[in-house]
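Hi X.,

You mentioned you wanted examples for the new student's onboarding notes, showing what a folding record looks like when two proteins sit in one file. Here is a clean example. The first protein comes first, with its sequence line followed by its structure tokens.
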Amino acid sequence: MRHMFINGEFVASSNGGTFAVYNPATEEVVDEVPNADLADVRRAIAAAGTASRAWRYTAAGERCEMLHAIAQQLRANREALATLLTQEGGKPLVENRDEIEWCAACFSYYAEMGRNSRGRVIPSVEPTQLAMVLKEPYGVVACIVPWNYPLLLLSWKVAPALAAGNTVVLKPSEMTPLSTLLFVELCCTHLPVGVLNVVTGFADVGRELVVNTGTHLIAFTGSFATGREIARLAAERVKKTHLELGGKDAFIVTEDADLDVAVPAVAWAGLLNAGQVCTSTERVYVHESVAKRFTDNLVDFVKTLRLGNGMEPTTDIGPLVGDKYRAKVEDQVEEARRKGATILTGGRRPPQFDRGYFYEPTVLNNVTHDFRIMREETFGPTIPIMTYRTFEEALTLANDSDYGLGANLYTTDPVKVKQFYEEVKAGTLWVNDPLTDNDAGPFGGMKFSGGARELGEEGLEEFLETKHVHWEFEVAKKPWWYPYGKDA
């Protein structure tokens, strides 16, 4: 059993409780982890608080070298981390190896960002004054991360938080805590005691992290419903939140697009990690003149993809992470079927598996925005398709969503590209290159997707607050009681 890491020590839950972590491909227990209680959470927050002052005043260059060392440590342990990710999350091993490299790159990026001076000197209103804008850490940051990319989304928060001089208490999803515990163990070999802590458990653990007065910023990635509750609890305490709340991303394919490229691109964007990606393509809009050819080719392509255990090198798509998540996908597909959608391929549990939370990659058309599958986040291997006549109609359809995380366009027309990035309300827009990330480019959403930004300079700024220093250095010329006593 892997233990929590609090104040530089491996610890069990103070109540002795544990919970099991299951392999979604086999439904077998992988391991058990401590089920933290409120005393454990408070101990972790206190440890982070104690470490906060020394870490804040650690030279930026020293913090930089520690983050670079973490990046090297992650790369050296890539196989062990990727294996745990696959065993507890189901994502194919080859994809999890990539995830570890992305994590290491993120730590390296923020190591260098953290070297840079922050703040600025601003013009003073008189020659005997100095005015400065300072950027300083919040203190203790609570990071609550999901199960679909547990280490990458952890890195997007923890790396800039540490680079900015904050200390961290981390709560992984109860579905995928094992890789996070190993990850933190590796990180803490290069960090002072108490700077990074991890507690494992359920909603009560997350709630305590939000409401406890010892945390100063809450960084969360997950569902809109949970994010809204976090925002409510934090607002009652006037506490800063950093929320990324999922999406319902659109993918527009124009009549001039190269379908030989666009078809596998849509499949990749919709089915990566069995569709369990915040920026998964969940709505496809294809020009009516190419819709039949595009759809036929997409169905043929999807039928070649191989379902299986993520540990098998031949697997293209693994299972969903749990039965309740598969049930949600099934409910949306079944409702679409009842309302008149045509299931072109998939739409069922694969008969070759008697265990595991598998669901066939599914392509369907004859859908409208009245269907839940076109309005609610699905988070599963589905690709629903609608047709459009004009590009303006496609843009309207893309914007017809409560969410605004990302959107895709495939076209060879630069005029359409300009219309797309000017008019679509989403935080990240991909043109002819779906779901790529750039550590230097901000990631985040609009509308119900939340307003936080991760990565880039903006990702560092999220973990810094602003202070204005106004310094009058010729005090004798202007006593504190000026102007009331100027004639005395």
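Then the second protein repeats the pattern, sequence line and then tokens:
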Amino acid sequence: MSVGKVYLVGAGPGSPDLLTIRAAELVKAADVIVHDRLIQEAALALARPSAERIDMGKPVGRHESRQAEINELLVREARAGKMVVRLKGGDPFVFGRGGEEAEYLAECHVPFEVVPGVSSSLAAPLSAGIAVTHRANASSVTIVTGHECDGKSRIDWGALARLETLVFLMAVHNVANIASRLIEWGRSPDTPAAMIQMAFWPEHRVVTGTLRTIADEVRAAGIQPPATLVIGEVVALRERLQALGASV
């Protein structure tokens, strides 16, 4: 039997109307869909009734072992001659571990294609009325993982503190550490900040504050992952839009 093919597909925020046309076409044609938990049921419902749907959302504390299972699953299904769609929230190559999966597939000589998606690093701020760049106050945006906040972090916090818009993915549990690190390295405690929970989902919520207060605001509101932290003067745009009657 000939080897099939794996498509590493970005699903954007998970809503079917935010899939790219290419992503939707692949979901409809797939024999097997290996998906994360951040994919809405309506997006998965685009698949053929005969398609196998495999939920490989990573349980807390099992990221490394589960990722190895996913890699092996993709290879096994493709070698069985199937068209496999690996459907991932956001973009596969923006903190989606798509690069690792692509490497593994290449090492195993399994054909694959990467299909971009809308990253939550851009979609989440947008959903809250925050433009990550703005001619008046932000000519750059930096995307950072919220997981690297311990002593082993490779992040240059001094450099990061001097940059304009900062977007931290997977930041809920480390928001206090992130804020304190940035303040320690010279970022003003009064810098506006926002945490956006589950952009474009029914559970979508936004809390705002400053670098000094955002951790307390997140805790008081009970914000849960997945959520995106935005830091910078651009956050103030949300309030300006609301004052003008915009629904954000």
